[in-house]
Design brief:
CATH architecture of chain A: Sandwich
Structural class of chain B: mainly beta
Mean pLDDT of chain A: 84
Order of helices and strands of chain B: HEEEEEEEE
Distance between the termini of chain B: 35 Å
Strand content of chain A: 35-45%
Largest interface: A-B, 39 and 39 residues
Helix content of chain B: under 10%
CATH architecture of one domain in chain B: Sandwich
Oligomer: heterodimer
Number of domains of chain A: 1
CATH class of chain A: Mainly Beta
Number of helices of chain A: 1
Radius of gyration of chain A: 20 Å
Low-confidence stretches of chain B: 24-30
CATH topology of chain A: Immunoglobulin-like
Number of helices of chain B: 1
Order of helices and strands of chain A: HEEEEEEEEE
Low-confidence stretches of chain A: 1-8
Shape of chain B: elongated
CATH topology of one domain in chain B: Immunoglobulin-like
Mean pLDDT of chain B: 79
CATH class of one domain in chain B: Mainly Beta
Number of strands of chain B: 8
Largest sheet of chain A: 4 strands, mixed
Shape of chain A: elongated
Strand order of the largest sheet of chain A: 1-7-5-4
Strand order of the largest sheet of chain B: 1-2-8-7
Helix content of chain A: under 10%
């Protein structure tokens, strides 16, 4: 059994859609993606015209001399695509990876921010 | 386990093949019943408990080890804002692992990296297999 797990890992990783939270703040949108085990250098973020594509592989080393007693997770390949709203300022998108969570900050473009209109007195 | 008491002992190869065909490329249990998911493995010197806890700071993970149980506790906090989609689990979580082997409690080590927590529980000296030399007369 032990050997089979290793074999299946070599064959190609199972693809998974990572669990994601999308929320709006007054300044913009935040996207949180759970990607445990993915190292910074293995993370790929592609931005096209109106799509944000993220991908990454978790990199747990499989120790060969260990006997696996109980297995609930393994290496997977995360992939997910988000469609961007036109009010997002593409130039200012920020991404941080911390504790296995990818945080994307998508600020709203200046022109989309709510603006107060002054009423001028005559 | 040293002695395999199952009735299929010896003919595991056939069974393995059938199960592999059923489960496809992934050999791990697909049911997510408990959070966080964890793997347990062991080698000659230690037992390893590994789990996936993304988004939790190391300070917020509470690990306790009392005689034969390891308890992993923590909380996943919620972000502020207007949610459009929420798939990530939030709230308190706890998992208990029973360990049926004497552990050297002072040398238990835990390491967190990229949302992956590894706990190394070294086996106590007295539980390790020992070679006994036979004296010849």
């Amino acid at each position: 059994m032990n050997q089979n797990v290793m074999q299946s890992e070599a064959k190609g990783l199972p693809r998974m859609k990572p669990a994601t939270d999308i929320l709006e703040t007054p300044e913009g949108f935040s996207i949180y993606v759970d990607m445990p085990g993915v190292r910074k250098e293995d993370l790929v973020i592609d931005l096209t015209e109106d799509e944000l594509r993220i991908g990454g592989k978790s990199a747990y080393q499989s120790a060969t001399n260990e006997n696996r007693v109980h297995v609930e997770f393994g290496n997977v390949e995360y992939t997910r695509v988000f469609t961007l709203s036109h009010i997002v300022d593409r130039e200012k998108i920020k991404a941080t990876l911390k504790n296995g969570v990818l945080e994307l900050l998508l600020p709203k473009a200046e022109k989309a921010l709510p603006r107060k209109i002054q009423v001028e007195l005559e | 386990m040293v002695i395999d008491m199952s009735p299929f002992y010896g003919s595991l190869d056939n069974f393995d093949r059938v199960f592999n065909e059923l489960w496809g490329p992934l050999n791990i249990s697909q049911r997510r019943v408990a959070y966080p998911p964890l793997n347990i493995s062991e080698d000659a010197d230690a037992i390893y408990v590994r789990c996936e806890i993304p988004g939790v700071n190391v300070e917020d993970i509470d690990l306790t080890f009392t005689d034969a149980t390891l308890v992993i506790k923590g909380e996943r906090k919620i972000e502020k804002g207007k949610y459009y989609r929420q798939e990530r689990p939030t709230g308190n979580f706890q998992r208990v692992v029973n360990i049926n082997s004497p552990i050297d409690v002072d040398k238990v080590k835990a390491l967190a990296k990229d949302g992956h927590l590894e706990i190394r529980l070294p086996k106590a000296e007295e539980s390790k297999p020992r070679k006994i030399s036979i004296a010849m007369n």
